[in-house]
Amino acid sequence: MESILLGIIQGLTEFLPVSSSGHLEIAKFILNDASIQEKSLLFTVMLHFGTALSTIIVFRKDILEIFKGLVSKNKEDINFSLKIILSMIPAAIVGVVFDDVIDSFFEGNILLVASMLILTGLILFIADRAKTTDKPVGWTDAIIIGFAQMIAILPGISRSGATISTAVLLGVDRYKSARFSFLMVVPLIFGKMAKDLLSGDFAVSVEQSWELLFGFIAALVTGIFACTWMIALVKRSKLKYFSYYCFIVAIVVFIYLAVK
After folding, report:
1. What is the domain count for the chain?
2. For 136-174, b where at least 16 C-beta lie within 10 A, e where not — what string?
3. What is the pLDDT of residue 15?
4. Are 51 and 10 in contact (CB under 8 A)?
5. Is the pLDDT of residue 196 over 70?
6. Which pairs count as long-range contacts for 251-254, CB under 8 Å and 24+ apart, including other chains?
7. I want to staple 152 with a disulfide (CB 3.0 to 4.6 A). Which of 63, 104, 137, 162 is the partner?
8. Strand pairing partners for 172?
9. What Å distances lie between residue 64 and 60, 71, 213, CA to CA?
10. What angle in degrees, to the nearest 10, is found between the helix axes of 2-15 and 20-31?
11. Residue among 192, 234, 93 nearest 151 (CA)
12. From the CA atom positions of the chain, what is the Rg in Å?
């Protein structure tokens, strides 16, 4: 049941701008289950695999276009594919160089998570007030959005919230912002998964295998729903409601830590 719960949390919050990593840290902290922490790395890898696969399912045509764009003679297709690659560079460099430092942020530091949720809420609230345009993602936009994704490595800062909000504040069309945000993270997720699988010791029991499977399925199914829902919400300019949610969760965590 805990595996399914964490899978649902990952699936829903990976695409909604409320920080999946922050919510997983809060859930693990509340559940206080030592077994979750023991298999935390592999479990996180499986949950991210579920949401990465849901992204591929929802954006299968777009992802195919990116690969085609790399060998296409169409300048627009080539440029879009290169912008996706360009946007990945800041987070990829930080992920490789500061991997151990980043891992230390995911050790139950719930105060950090709550503080970063406040920051996420502020970013979303400001972005929601930006004007609607039909501007595509430019080269400079791709780099700046990439740096936003790099900062969102911190638990509590929503990756989709930071990247979509940054794109919208740069004047990029809301739908194009969401599409670019979801597509730019797929290679990074699979890269992180490959690195963790190659570096970790993932011997698990039969019981743990079932837990991983249930968590994966829950993340996949809810991820498909959340990804589709998020695109519709961004089009309708409802980011401020997610900012309120982030504020509420952060306040609840602060109160919980104060009375605990």
Report:
1. 1
2. ebeeebbebbbbbbbbbbbbbbbbbbbbbbbbbbbebbb
3. 80
4. yes
5. no
6. 253/26, 253/110, 253/111, 253/113, 253/114, 253/117, 254/114
7. 162
8. 135
9. 6, 12, 27
10. 160
11. 93
12. 18
Q: Is the pLDDT of residue 64 over 90?
A: no
201/242: higher pLDDT: 242
Distant-in-sequence, close-in-space partners of 159: CB < 8 Å, separation ≥ 6 = 19, 20, 149, 152, 181, 185
Q: What is the pTM of this model?
A: 0.82
pLDDT digits (tens, 9 = 90+) for 83-125: 988 999 998 888 878 777 776 776 768 899 999 999 999 999 9
| Residue found by looking up tokens 């979801």 in the block | 182
State the average pLDDT for the chain: 83
Residues 150 and 98: their CA atoms lie apart, in Å, by 11
Helix, strand, coil in percent for the chain, rounding step 5: 80, 0, 20
> Token digits for 191?
């890269």
Q: State the residue range of the domain holding 175.
A: 2-259
Quick one: DSSP state of residue 129? T
The count of residues in the chain is: 260
